[in-house]
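Before relying on records like the one below, remember that each one covers exactly one chain. Contacts with other chains, cofactors or solvent are not represented anywhere in the record.
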Amino acid sequence: MKSVTAFVGSARKQGVTSRATRRLLDALEASGDVQSELVFLSDCDVGLCRGCKACFIRGEEFCPLHDDRDRLIEKMARSDGVVLASPVYAFQVSAHVKAFLDRLGFALHRPRFHGKAYTSIAVEGLYGGRDVVRYLDLVGGALGFNVVKGSRVVCRKNPDAAHEPMLEEERRKMDETLARQARRLHEQLSRPPFPEPTMLQLFAFRMARTSMRLELAEDRRDHAYYREHGWFGSDYYYPTRLGPLKRVAGAAFDRLAARSSRAREDHRPERRG
């Protein structure tokens, strides 16, 4: 059995976002080999990031906020797949989702969810769903997940039905969209968990690890994390076989990253002064 955990960023338990997420999970469970859990972020205590950078410099365990963040991270770590769903508020994710993602900032520096599937849902009333899906999928990839492109659900409220926020045509389209998304996510769950990285993923890894190695002190948590995982000498975040082209490209990315780091070092004010 595969386990999938969905995090819903709407406080409306019977709203369209929660219903859409439940439809996706139901379609996954219908395959017979997936079990799921739905978590409302509004039920969790997730404080606003204070910007102290303790998680970046010393480690996430030094965060001054003691709340449900680690419990939610543990749920993600135990899951084979993760779904992140949000309504579109002010052209972006909801406050619940943004607060949670801000508290995961250290994991964008030190990705840890490799081998796990991920997808997103954005529910829009007027505009912005596509941008929110792009944002959520970008974050998922940066956290290390194998990303299945998210879906946008459109809900133009029916003024003639006070208790039913979706038109029949919208509900039909939502069901079809989420059924397709569930099939794609199930396919991802069934694939080998550690695929060969794309050229863009390889570029991002090589640039990040070189800047960590050259620009950070060894006692900084980011530097220590990369060192402990052997990433300073690896081809990628996890063992993988690179083809000849990507081996050559990876070496070129390393050289480019080293030049960029030296250029930044030369332009620091203390060096110029």
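The first strand starts at residue 2 and ends at 8.
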